[in-house]
């Protein structure tokens, strides 16, 4: 019998938490493990959970969870319930969402999920840019570690790069993303990018998974708030 248990991901999929990667801590780069506040003693694995597409947003709306950050609240509630049902005897700690910085894109790259689009959002060949990291946890589980999914960046083969032309701030015009130009455009009164990213919407990759207007507005209103506070 294998020393590993299959990852019980189906119980998360049905809530839209449909991307999972399991890492043995021993196989992660030392700097990632060393940066975890509080250390990893007593844990064996790091579990990365994400969502792809619209299913998570639909599950959040259906659940009635409200407040300032319904996606995080719903995710935390779902993961705790999932662990109590699937792994009642396992010890675990949720690192993200939480106050400590976590190298989400590096973990995403190790999982094979992350490639940087020209506007610096992660992209992969299946989901396009319509996915995000929802949780990172330590656990003393024995799940089978996930092989990295091997999808090269779809941007490499994208000749026309419609995202570049769609950006009203010409933030990618120089071949390098200008955060300054993007932020300046988004901060304007009545900005066409207040609650969306026109470049992201213009990308054809994974367009079947594109967020609905309400989901886009939710996530971009949070980033606009951050911009207003910090820039
Ligand atoms: S439009 Fe092309 S270059 Fe732009 S993000 Fe999509 S795949 Fe990448
Ligand atoms: S949010 Fe708007 S300004 Fe910023 S990169 Fe996207 S399209 Fe360009």
Q: How would you describe the overall organization of this protein?
A:
With 231 residues, this protein is of the alpha+beta class. It has helices at 10-13, 30-34, 55-63, 70-86, 104-111, 162-166, 179-187, 198-202, 213-230; strands at residues 19-24, 45-52, 92-96, 131-139. It has a four-stranded antiparallel sheet with strand order 1-2-4-3, with helices on both faces. The protein is globular and about 50 Å long. The protein is 35% helix and 12% strand. The model has no long low-confidence stretch (mean pLDDT 95). It binds iron/sulfur cluster (SF4) (2 copies).
Spatial order of the strands forming the largest sheet: 1-2-4-3
Report the C-alpha radius of gyration, rounded: 18 Å
**In total, how many beta strands?**
4
Low-confidence stretches: none
How does the overall form come out from the CA principal axes? Answer: globular
**Number of H- or I-type helical stretches:** 9
Question: What gap, in angstroms, lies between the N and C termini?
Answer: 56 Å
Major beta-sheet overview: 4 strands, antiparallel
Elements, N to C (H/E): HEHEHHEHEHHHH
Structural class: alpha+beta
Mean pLDDT: 95
Ligands, ions, cofactors: iron/sulfur cluster
Quote the beta fraction.
5-15%
| DSSP helix fraction | 25-40%
